[in-house]
Write a structure and sequence with these properties.
CATH topology: Cytochrome p450
Organism: Neotoma stephensi
Number of helices: 18
Distance between the termini: 48 Å
Structural class: alpha+beta
Strand order of the largest sheet: 1-2-7-4-3
Protein name: Cytochrome P450
Cofactor: heme
CATH class: Mainly Alpha
Number of strands: 11
Largest sheet: 5 strands, mixed
CATH architecture: Orthogonal Bundle
Strand content: 5-15%
CATH superfamily: Cytochrome P450
Subcellular location: Endoplasmic reticulum membrane; Microsome membrane
Number of domains: 1
Pfam families: p450
Radius of gyration: 23 Å
Length: about 500
């Protein structure tokens, strides 16, 4: 259904409901914001460009902390580096709740490590961090896994013999294989039909959840869920992935060796067995399925999307790619694999990767939080369970920290001596107790994949650099880079 039709239906329903009930009054003392209409909230203040553009415009009038009504519910927006840090770091516990994302709520249903709360979230996060660390630093470290996967990718690119190709699914494949090796205990061939099907479902879901119609859905999910739309396709996609995960869990159960757990699923099954007599345990089948889905989805799409944007930027700014290759030649050379130890000796390359993450702005409005108790913040009283959006884009584009926030410039992360410069505004993985638990793996992936590719290949585009459009294909919950063709030319 067209977004304009959805919008019209929502308006009509809103006015009908307005006749039968009033607007709910929030207790507490929320930050200022545009006056909402009953049930419609601030829909009429929304920009066709999406939620982020709307929030930027509203912030100009109301300041860095303001309230927007997404339909009938108030959401507090945190804009800029200082506001986000004050909430997620200085008052980390109070802001540690997770609010739902409407289009995926029917899939995750408050289970798993990303969208759960309270003791469930704490138990699953502790377990997930410990288990991923164990399988990342065991017999085969994450570094070794990434190095091996990078070499598989190099061989795949060599087969192309410099012909233009769409890198989407290859970049997805390499990042998915790293998380698959930890979660499922195996990697997949790049031509495996089941693997490619799963990757396509994840790519589709990320794109659909970032669409304009999904942003409208966030306002009126209680009504729009009954109508056709992207939310139904997202549900079908994720159910298919969950079915695959369920089959994998059954295979693990049939071949489980308690003395030699192979991966995340085995370790979780052993924990389930250990706690089977505990009626209140969080280690049950539903949390296993949704936790694996969460890790698989996040571990695949975030790093692969960043790589996709990264190489599009290398095509747009070839002088940057050349400078990275010069540093690779000086520090690593051409006869050994890049390693994580090289990162500290390669400040320019590290700065380029930081700038790619900043510029690509992967999760612009952040994954929603909520306060877990009545919370005093900047003179306002946020009632328990108030939803909070930390607008990460506003920090990544903060002019107080980045001289040219809308321009791709690696110098944003270099000091006067050419050393890597850290920035408090750099928060692509968010901050605080809810920050991405895969940050360490993602940072290692980006460095090793990026340097290995540019060690072995120069890149070029069928399109002249000046004509390359960096505008995202979608920008909502996530930022989806445009499709493009790239040539990998052996050096």
């Amino acid at each position: 259904m067209e977004p304009s039709v959805l919008l019209l239906l929502a308006l009509l329903v809103g006015f009908v409901l307005l006749l039968v009930r009033g607007y709910p009054k929030a207790h507490g003392r929320l930050p200022p914001g545009p006056r909402p209409l009953p049930l419609l909230g601030n829909l009429l203040q929304m920009d066709r460009g999406g939620l982020l553009k709307s929030f930027i415009r509203i912030r100009e009038k109301y300041g860095d902390v303001f309230t927007v009504y997404l339909g009938p519910r108030p959401v507090v927006m945190l804009y800029g580096t200082e506001a986000i840090r004050e909430a997620l770091v200085d008052q980390a516990e109070a802001f540690s709740g997770r609010a739902p994302v409407a289009v995926v709520k029917p899939v995750f249903r408050d289970y798993g490590v990303i969208f759960s709360n309270g003791e469930r979230w704490k138990a699953l996060r502790r377990f997930s961090l410990a288990t991923m660390r164990d399988f990342g630093m065991g017999k085969r470290s994450v570094e070794e896994r990434i190095q091996e996967e990078a070499q598989c990718l190099v061989e795949e690119f060599r087969k192309s013999q410099g012909a233009p190709l769409d890198p989407t699914f290859l970049f997805q494949s390499i990042t998915a294989n790293i998380i698959c090796s930890i979660v499922f205990g195996e990697r997949f061939d790049y031509k495996d039909r089941q693997f490619l099907r799963l990757l396509n479902l994840i790519y589709q879901t990320f794109s659909l959840s970032s669409s304009f119609s999904s942003q409208v859905f966030e306002f009126f999910a209680s009504f729009l869920k009954y109508l056709p739309g992207a939310h139904r396709q997202i549900f079908r996609n994720m159910q298919e992935v969950l079915n695959y995960i369920g089959q994998s869990v059954k295979k693990h159960q049939a071949t489980l060796d308690p003395s030699h757990p192979r991966d995340f699923i085995d370790t979780y099954l052993l924990r389930m067995e250990k706690e089977k007599s505990n009626q209140h345990t969080e280690f049950h089948h539903e949390n296993l399925l949704i936790s694996v889905l969460s890790l698989f989805f996040a571990g695949t799409e975030t790093s692969s999307t960043t790589l996709r944007y990264g190489f599009l930027l290398m095509l747009k700014y070839p002088h940057v790619a050349e400078k990275v290759q010069k540093e690779i030649d000086q520090v690593i050379g051409s006869h050994r694999l890049p390693s994580l130890d090289d990162r500290t000796k390669m400040p320019y390359t590290d700065a380029v990767i930081h700038e790619i993450q900043r510029f690509s702005d992967l999760i612009p409005v952040g994954v929603p939080h909520k306060v877990i108790k009545d919370t005093l913040f900047r003179g306002y009283l946020l009632p328990k369970n108030t939803e909070v959006y930390p607008i990460l884009s506003s920090a990544l584009h903060d002019p107080q920290y980045f001289e040219q926030p809308d321009t791709f410039n690696p110098d944003h992360f270099l000091d006067a001596k050419g050393a890597l410069k850290k920035s408090e505004a750099f928060m692509p993985f968010s901050l605080g107790k809810r920050m991405c638990l895969g940050e360490g793996i993602a940072r290692n992936e980006l460095f090793l994949f990026f340097t290995t590719i540019l060690q072995n290949f120069s890149v070029s585009s069928p399109v002249a650099p000046k004509d390359i459009d960096l505008s995202p294909k979608e920008s909502g919950f996530g930022t989806v880079p445009p499709k493009y063709q790239i040539c990998f030319l052996a050096r």
